[in-house]
């Protein structure tokens, strides 16, 4: 269980593979390094994978502060520097996609390739499910309400299957649910508000590197339309839409994700996604959740 001292907290991270090319994997909100478990279990040849738990998440310490985008970028820079990674391939999922993009904008010389997996929109959360939540409750109410909600197993067990409908392995849900429950409640609300307030859109046209953006057609949190402005603003972008996939492509289609990662690192065009049998997704889960929480009609 590797740990590393970073400014303000001690971070847990997973490392796998011993190849010459370093890859840093950044998870999302309510999450941990376990969201990369398929890759970590069987790392592709030639790669060395590093998957940190963000502050307040997984098995990292919970400092109770620093849950802003700028601080997450500083944490990632400190992590890479401490591990002596002057240049590396960067992959980010959801919140981690936003962190990866923000890091790439600040430190383009350190990013060998950039893969953004269902990332938060660079122009904020207005068009997403999380944005609806922010609009519905307001940031102050979220700061008081979401920390308690984050500790409710029923909520997580109800939401996660609809967030990533392609996952068919119960053990994966059990693991990520346990890590979600372990997240610092202050981090959950802090990261959500950080995404709501973040706007990097004006900076995107100046990004010199190639960016691959992976979109889930059935993503209930970051629907494809919400990423249109991000994709349009990046000058060297490859957008990939996976049909039948939700918010966690790396868990729902691990082998396809492995191939996409290698194509991104090599600078190749992504391979077409092969169809598979899909699990039925229940509709209207967000509004059902709001109704059960007594938020309907607001």
From TrEMBL:
Pfam families: Abhydrolase_1. InterPro entries: AB_hydrolase_1, AB_hydrolase_fold, Carboxylesterase_BioH. Residues 22-254 form the AB hydrolase-1 domain. This is Pimeloyl-ACP methyl ester carboxylesterase.
């Amino acid at each position: 269980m590797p740990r590393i001292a970073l400014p303000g907290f001690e971070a847990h991270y997973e490392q796998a593979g011993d190849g010459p090319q370093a890859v840093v994997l950044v998870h999302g909100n309510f999450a941990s390094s376990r969201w990369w478990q398929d890759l970590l279990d069987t790392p592709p040849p030639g790669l060395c994978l590093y998957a940190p738990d963000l502050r307040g998440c997984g098995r990292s310490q919970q400092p109770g502060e620093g849950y802003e985008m700028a601080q997450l970028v500083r944490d990632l820079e400190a992590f890479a520097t401490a591990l002596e990674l002057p240049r590396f391939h960067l992959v980010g999922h959801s919140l981690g996609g936003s962190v990866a993009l923000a890091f790439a904008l600040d430190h383009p010389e350190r990013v060998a390739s950039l893969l953004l997996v269902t990332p938060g929109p660079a122009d904020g959360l207005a068009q997403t499910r999380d944005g609806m939540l922010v609009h519905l409750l307001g940031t102050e109410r979220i700061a008081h309400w979401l920390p308690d909600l984050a500790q409710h197993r029923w909520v997580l067990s109800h939401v996660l299957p609809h967030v990533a409908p392609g996952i068919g392995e119960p053990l994966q849900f059990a693991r990520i649910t346990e890590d979600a429950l372990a997240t610092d409640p202050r981090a959950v609300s802090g990261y959500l508000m950080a995404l709501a307030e973040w706007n990097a859109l004006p900076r995107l046209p100046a990004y010199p590197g190639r960016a691959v953006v992976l979109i889930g057609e059935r993503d209930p949190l970051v629907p494809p339309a919400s990423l249109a402005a991000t994709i349009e603003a990046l000058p060297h972008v490859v957008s990939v839409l996976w049909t039948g996939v939700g918010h966690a492509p790396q868990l729902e289609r691990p082998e396809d994700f492995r191939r996409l990662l290698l194509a991104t690192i090599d600078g190749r065009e992504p391979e077409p996604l092969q169809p598979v049998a899909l699990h039925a997704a229940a509709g209207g889960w967000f509004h059902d959740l709001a109704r059960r929480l007594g938020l309907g009609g607001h």
